[in-house]
């Protein structure tokens, strides 16, 4: 007999709202169900489920008769993936940063959110766990929450480096001092700044490399291919580059690709 899957459908309630920088809102949530967030996950995420603007109802996925997760078009229409910025296990509180865009379901919701507002979610989940790898994280401001969570949970003796491109100086945050972090300010005349910085870095003194990145779709694809061409002896799962957004498309209009 197959073990029955357990999917956590839950509600998050806004308990605090902050604006740490020009680029994003930070929302603190309480959760109505106990969660399991593995501190060894690299860049854990969850799927937020927003209410239908017409009905105000939140739709959740279900398990079908074959024990498979069934996601209806209605659920998919109002679902968005977000990284966990922080998790307080004792109080079961989650922190999520919402990048500010000109439009989009999640952007509008986060900017209008008030204490007491609710959003559904499925998860959390993490595709990777760190072990003894030399961890190389890279991303633009959209991946900053994921990178900060991961660096903040690494053991003090774990080696890692991060390459982060942000929109403004106010986006730069304090991270553990023993870690190497290369900050860059976005330059419209140099869109490949982040990719070039990473590809020109010398990692020859390190073994067992693990790359993780989150950035704009076309740059993610370019970086993914460049890393695979340069580090031909790495296992396929040692290069994890995700398209966090795509130039010219609103959130929900493209598919993330790992």
TrEMBL record:
Gene3D superfamilies, A to Z: Nucleotide-binding domain of ferredoxin-NADP reductase (FNR) module, Translation factors
Record domain FAD-binding FR-type: where: 7-131
A Pfam family of this chain: FAD_binding_9
GO molecular function annotations of the record: oxidoreductase activity
Superkingdom, taxonomy of origin: Bacteria
UniProt-listed InterPro entries: FAD-bd_FR_type, FNR_nucleotide-bd, Riboflavin_synthase-like_b-brl, SIP_FAD-bd, SIP_fam, SIP_rossman_dom
Family: Belongs to the SIP oxidoreductase family.
Name used for this protein in its record: Siderophore-interacting protein
């Amino acid at each position: 007999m197959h073990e029955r899957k357990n999917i956590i459908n839950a509600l998050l309630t806004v308990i605090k709202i902050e604006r740490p920088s020009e680029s994003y809102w930070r929302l603190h949530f309480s959760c109505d169900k106990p969660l399991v967030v593995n501190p060894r996950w690299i860049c854990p995420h969850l799927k937020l489920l927003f209410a239908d603007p017409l009905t105000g109802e939140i739709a959740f996925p279900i398990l079908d008769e074959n024990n498979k997760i069934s996601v209806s078009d209605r659920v998919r229409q109002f679902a968005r993936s977000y990284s966990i910025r922080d998790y307080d296990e004792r109080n079961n509180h989650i922190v999520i940063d919402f990048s500010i865009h000109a439009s989009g379901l999640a952007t509008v919701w986060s900017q209008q959110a008030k204490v007491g507002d609710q959003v559904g979610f499925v998860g959390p989940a993490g595709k990777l766990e760190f072990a003894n790898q030399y961890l190389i994280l890279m991303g633009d401001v959209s991946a900053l929450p994921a990178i900060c969570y991961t660096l903040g949970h690494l053991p003090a003796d774990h080696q890692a480096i991060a390459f982060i491109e942000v929109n403004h100086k106010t986006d730069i945050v304090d991270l553990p001092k023993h870690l190497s972090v290369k900050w860059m300010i976005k330059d419209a005349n140099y869109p490949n700044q982040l990719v070039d910085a990473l590809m020109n870095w010398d990692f020859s003194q390190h073994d067992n490399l693990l790359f993780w990145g989150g950035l704009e779709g076309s740059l993610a694809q370019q970086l993914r291919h460049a890393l695979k061409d340069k580090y031909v002896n790495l296992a396929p799962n040692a290069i994890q580059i995700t398209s966090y957004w795509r130039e010219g498309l609103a959130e929900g209009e493209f598919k993330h690709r790992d």
